[in-house]
Amino acid sequence: MKKTLFAKPLTNVHVELIAPQFDMPDLTLPFWGSRKKMPMHRIVRLEGEGNYTLFHFADGSQLMVSLTLKKMESRLSPKVFARPHKKNIINLLYLEALHPDNQQLIVSLVNGDRVEVSRRKASRFIKQVKGFQQELLILNSAPTISIMAA
């Protein structure tokens, strides 16, 4: 299986440094009868399970909320979050590689998760990833911060 890397994956430290550049406010999520603020930039992936969404965070923790993936998608930053499949939304800050295999494209994330890209969404997803990578290169070339050096 061929592996396509767009850039060196970002470390958690780099994600923390560049997150403010992408306008990602905290999300307020319903949690056991109350509300809880969660930093958007620490979300690695969202997984839809019927009327619920399972959040996967950078520290390995998970949180299930009673909101649909579609509802959550409207609350996320479209510059950083992409929906490669009807059941998943991924944070491009945690993208590790793309794996084209025959007619299937698979995304691997830095936490080890692998997500299929639907054939219908593949070309739009790849365009979004390339646009995001260009933006990272622009941020990386800024003299005040070195993002990709690790």
Automatic annotation (TrEMBL):
InterPro entries reported for this sequence: LytR-like (IPR046947), LytTR_DNA-bd_dom (IPR007492)
Domain of life: Bacteria
Pfam families: LytTR
Domain HTH LytTR-type: 33-131
Gene Ontology molecular functions: DNA binding; phosphorelay response regulator activity
Protein name, per record: LytTR family transcriptional regulator
